[in-house]
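seq/struct pair 1
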Amino acid sequence: MGIFGRKNDDGSETPATGADLATLTGDYTIDQAHSTFGFTARHAMVTNVKGKFDEFSGELHLDGSDPSASTASIDIVMDSIDTGSADRDGHLKSADFFKTEEFPAMTFRSTKAESLGGDDYRVTGDLTILGTTRPISIDLEFNGAAKDPFGNERVGFEGKAEILRSDWGITWNAALETGGVLVSDKIKLNFDISAIKKS
């Protein structure tokens, strides 16, 4: 179901009413307990290692009648990285990678939002890692809106993006005897976002 429509039983879509749009439009806080900011990197050229950040905060402004007026602001605590291995996490926090003591946060600030049709949207913004800021585009799918049993009005999105970590100065690697490198330059980002509307 897109922001602008309501899905009927036969699969067709009925345009949303003004009241529906008014209900959607507003300011939201990302719910850390029900959201995930994750990533995937290729390891040793043969397998994928997945990780996530356990501590983050974020604010969204959604405009149901004009998606281009929507905004997003996200701050991620780099020291909260979790790949399921304490040794690997420690290495990622070190000067070889994220230098978390010197650069404790990764931030995203949106600069553009656009509808791609249906449930699909694209948000472009500035991603800052290790003090370096570069633009990225995130493709998002709107998963819907609902009121939970506690009376919170929620919206949900899932998204993905790809970056080259070297663009942010993260270049550590090790050569493999069989050719190639230990850690891929390309990193896949994935997001599952549940956000609660502010009263």
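seq/struct pair 2
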Amino acid sequence: MYDPAQLATFLAVAQTRGFSDAGRQLGLRQSTVSQHIRKLEAQIGRRLFVRDTHSVTLTVDGNALKEFAQSIIELNERAERYFAGTELRGRIRFGTSEDFALSQLPEVLREFRRRHPAIDVELTVGLSGDLYRKLDARKLDLLLAKRQRGDNRGKVVWRDRLVWVGREDWQPDPDRPLPLVTFPPPSIGHTAAIEALDQVRRPWRIACLSGSLSGLRAAAMAGLGVVVQARNLIVEGLVELPRSAGLPELGDTEFVVISADKNPRSPAAALSATLIANGARFRSV
């Protein structure tokens, strides 16, 4: 029999690729995390991770155990909920933006559905501003998005740096207004770009407005201009522009999960807890 606590620690290390991050995610000391992994490796008789001073990577056996560990933990939790009469049922109207939908979110939702097969998730993907309005109108139960200015609701899932993003060979012309490829206002990236440029008195113009991330990517790949994105959510084909591009700093942003349902035992609360627990996973994209 494998210890579910040790398996949970193993999965946390595999997801975060670090013993310290796994400890923070689980609320354990790093020494406890190391002890769990040592005991698990001794029981299995195989090495699960290759460790050095800079990285932690799964071995072939570690990758094999990952699927087994997820299934063991999920079945254990389902059995506990069933016999305790606490298995969650119901529906979640969950909203998020396109950049999350293209990152680690599908994997997180897949694991959530494994653990809570009696919960139906209705996913709405859209612009953050529209999603906030749907949440306020009670048309969504849960929202994962960048924190809007002046809105203190929600719990932080992770923090990230906003950066200028473009095609790898793209360089801004310092003698011409900076062409911006952006979501329409009240996009957080849109606002951050304009405020940063106005602060340093750098002229700018709107080169492309698009309501979809694929539209922004297409415009940037065509060399029409520069996009503002969170560093860990940069879309394929685009890169963070170097400091030599001469563009101002954009600062950080917070990604928050906000629930319209205040019941701590609701399906929305369960998904919210899952998203927060996987914050390190989003950061390590």
